[in-house]
């Protein structure tokens, strides 16, 4: 096929990625994976050196299969090396730890009430023994002068053990445990000033230290010239990828108009830097040794830019691709963009195979694939007659191409699609280039003549305000966003299968591809039918909301929520309720205050019987927090819900007078057990 012939690196990349994804299935038998890998290496060497003169086609095929399997197994083994919590030397494997020695391995980030530090645990102390350890952890230090004075490379002593990152307790809630696991972080903790202290020691990687120093210097420069914090946040994000100062409302406007990518340093930014340097160094007119020297200067500059921006997957991908093209042109070699993209992907996954789970990594590579593959085909549909028209058409085609290959990910991860992405990109992207150029020249001017730097900063602010106002205006247009869309992982795969086979069929006149595309569509519909059918089952669910009660009663696509006084906040809705609504495709949600259960009334899916008693789906529920008064008679209910932490006397009273087939504690109570009852915590129970 076309892809195998013209993109040889893809042959090895696909099984390598397959091995990374399948690692968890082989953890229990990792020894056998290592043994089989060694065996395949020996067989490959044997086939190459001893059979190459007598080789037959069958041996060639067998050798190819073995090589592909080696890449698959290499993906498994390389990923396993990143799962440090399985090592006996990981700090979590040591019990009864008195204190641990940790080193800050990234620049500390100041938060509202704490200082966030990523640390490497190098040693742990028990009462009678010291242990050399490994493993990373995310710690949050109480904000004070000591924590604010920490810097990259500092050593600290942590008293006691850290907590394993807990899995999310609510269905469909963002899984922090899984997210941190993709960065090899499995533990975290909040440390008061009594639980840690700095040793005074410091050990840094000189290269990273230089990057953090330059980033800090850039922040100081931007702080000086941009007085408005919100404007400064956008400028910092565009120029060098620092996002801590971004305004939440502005960020939402970018997100809902399909322009959020401009705030992430990516191929667009690296391309602009490359274009600027090529123009300043007259790279296009250079030949021979001069071109090689200038290419080396540009490569070094791109590397330093990556260093300042923190080597994010998107900027690293772009830098590797540009570096490959620059080297090829310097030595007058031709390049294949698909091979270059595969090479960049290989390098990033070799450095860290867990990058495959990074959402930015996925968006970055899929966007570039779309741009490289579809842009020329889109431009062929309508050709502009003028130079300006051609640039506008190119921008439209690039936006369409990138959106085509990334919109399924947007639906799967963020459940939304920006309907006016073409308009917003057409207006915003040209301004981004201007802001980046102005930002670069502003930094250079600070060392030459400050009034010029201030003028450039003021000019950049005008463009930034135009960008934000444009995004905000488009966000407020009718039907600006297609929101609360849910697709399953299987449906995500079906969409990409459809895009792949239909694209190959159109370009290569591969008629069988249309049949495969139809199968993908049928698979999408079938999976949707199965998922929708599962949602027909009624259920009640107790959400995990700290010190509050939030209970849902669902009938098909309608949900009734019972909430205590402070349970229904914006934060609870965004991070707890909304994911449940979207993933269960809820069309109607009714909120019932806990106090309303004192009355006999019909509320959505439930019947309130008064005084905390509820009837739903032929089962009875008693919510103790809604009950007023005393029970004169013993009561039996199907489900007993005990809310915020109660006194011992109240629990004894409930134990004597109330019997429930199921008891749910919304607040953890140690040592309490009831007859015929089981503690569910915040789990979902199908009725």
Summary tags:
687 residues, alpha+beta, OB fold (Dihydrolipoamide Acetyltransferase, E2P), nine-stranded mixed sheet, six-stranded mixed sheet, 52% helix, disordered C terminus
Can you tell me about this structure?
Among the domains are: 2-82; 91-204, OB fold (Dihydrolipoamide Acetyltransferase, E2P) (Beta Barrel); 362-419, no CATH class; 489-534, no CATH class; 539-686, no CATH class. It has 21 helices and 22 strands. A hairpin with a 2-residue loop joins strand 17 (606-610) and strand 18.
Percent helix, as a range, is: 40-55%
Question: What fraction of the residues are assigned to beta strands by DSSP?
Answer: 15-25%
Task: Give the distance, in angstroms, between the N- and C-terminal Cα atoms.
Answer: 52 Å
β-strand number: 22
Query: What is the residue-averaged pLDDT?
Result: 86
> Helix tally?
21
Main sheet attributes: strand count, strand direction, barrel closure: 9 strands, mixed
The low-confidence runs, each spanning 5 or more residues with pLDDT under 50, are 669-687
Radius of gyration over C-alpha positions, nearest whole angstrom: 29 Å
From the spread of the alpha carbons, the general shape counts as globular
The SS-based structural class is alpha+beta
